[in-house]
């Protein structure tokens, strides 16, 4: 079993303030491992668009959780992942765990570049997070009581960020996960109508799902000053590419993933969806 506990080496967690990165950093710290947060506001700073920041962030690091902003599907992402991975290995950080997108063909090029770097790699593929509803772009619609999206009756196997983080931590700290690709999902498929029903149950108030067209949703994005490209994310739900369960959580951890209902109940208990 590989470990950096008790050594002077650190784990670099890129995006260490994000939904999965924050959890990975907290879990590693709780195990007594040294963690360095990779972000533009950290010291030393890390910025994907400033390669000069990569070397200082890698000093004294022997493993890295690699998350890419804004998305691995963006132009140039694979080249940046490849260049960073090669630099990491050359700097002594051989263990690289990449957060990738489930069902995203464009992410495959970035995965290949990381795998070709000579690293001891693990790829963790995930899609829609449960936490999108309390920590991200669906929080305001939940508070407003209406989730309007162009998803019709399509289904998704929402996965919990804590499950992702647990798999990542295992991959960073245990040699058994080297060379593995884990595809993660929750334990059941849910439509957005199902999600609204679970949120209604957890919050004790009605939260409705309203189906809109892609063009209607693009208009809403424009009105709110948000990129219209956000609407394209829903094509992966509509074409059904991820409309089946996968079992990476069980494969990596030997346990079942968290159900959305349990997530919703726990999130509601924090008060995040309480109306002022």
Strand content: 15-25%
Mean pLDDT: 94
Give the N-to-C terminal Cα separation: 49 Å
Shape type: globular
Helical content (DSSP H or I, runs of 4+): 25-40%
Major sheet description: 6 strands, parallel
What do these coordinates show?
The chain is α/β, with parallel strands linked by helices. Helices cover 37% and strands 16% of the residues. The protein has helices spanning 19-30, 54-58, 77-90, 105-115, 139-144, 161-173, 192-203, 214-223, 235-238, 248-253, 260-269, and strands at residues 10-14, 34-38, 61-66, 95-101, 120-126, 146-149, 155-156, 181-183, 190-191, 208-211. The strands form three sheets. Strands 2-1-3-4-5-8 form a six-stranded parallel β-sheet, with helices on both faces. Strand 1 (10-14), helix 1 (19-30) and strand 2 form a beta-alpha-beta unit. The termini are far apart. The mean pLDDT is 94.
Architecture blueprint of SSEs:
Layout: E1 10-14, H1 19-30, E2 34-38, H2 54-58, E3 61-66, H3 77-90, E4 95-101, H4 105-115, E5 120-126, H5 139-144, E6 146-149, E7 155-156, H6 161-173, E8 181-183, E9 190-191, H7 192-203, E10 208-211, H8 214-223, H9 235-238, H10 248-253, H11 260-269
Parallel strand pairs: 1-2, 1-3, 3-4, 4-5, 5-8, 6-10
Antiparallel strand pairs: 7-9
Helix pairs in contact: 1-6, 3-4, 7-11
Produce a short descriptive summary:
37% of the residues lie in helices and 16% in strands. It is of the alpha/beta class and 276 residues long. The N and C termini lie far apart (49 Å).
């Amino acid at each position: 079993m590989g470990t950096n506990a008790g050594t002077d080496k650190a784990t670099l967690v890129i995006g260490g303030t994000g939904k999965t990165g924050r959890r990975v950093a907290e879990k590693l710290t709780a195990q007594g491992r040294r963690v360095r947060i990779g972000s533009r506001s950290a010291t030393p700073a890390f910025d994907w668009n400033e390669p000069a920041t990569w070397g200082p962030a890698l000093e004294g690091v022997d493993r890295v959780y690699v998350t890419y902003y804004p998305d691995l599907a963006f132009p140039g992402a694979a080249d940046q992942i490849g260049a960073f991975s090669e630099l990491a290995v050359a700097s002594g950080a051989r263990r690289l765990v990449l957060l990738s997108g489930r069902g995203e063909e464009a992410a495959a090029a970035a995965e290949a570049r990381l795998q070709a770097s000579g690293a001891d790699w693990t790829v963790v593929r995930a899609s829609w997070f449960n936490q999108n509803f309390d920590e991200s772009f669906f929080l305001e619609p939940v508070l407003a009581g209406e989730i309007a999206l162009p998803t019709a009756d399509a289904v998704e196997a929402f996965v919990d960020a804590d499950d992702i983080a647990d798999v990542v931590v295992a991959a960073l700290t245990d040699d058994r996960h080297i060379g593995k690709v884990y595809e993660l999902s929750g334990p059941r498929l849910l439509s957005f109508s199902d999600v609204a029903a679970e949120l209604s149950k957890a919050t004790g108030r009605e939260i409705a799902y309203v189906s809109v067209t892609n063009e209607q949703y693009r208009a809403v994005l424009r009105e709110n000053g948000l990129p219209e490209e956000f609407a394209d994310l829903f094509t992966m739900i509509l074409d059904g590419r991820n409309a089946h369960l996968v079992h990476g959580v069980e494969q990596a951890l030997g346990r079942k993933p968290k159900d959305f209902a349990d997530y919703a109940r726990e999130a509601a208990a924090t008060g995040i969806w309480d109306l002022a």
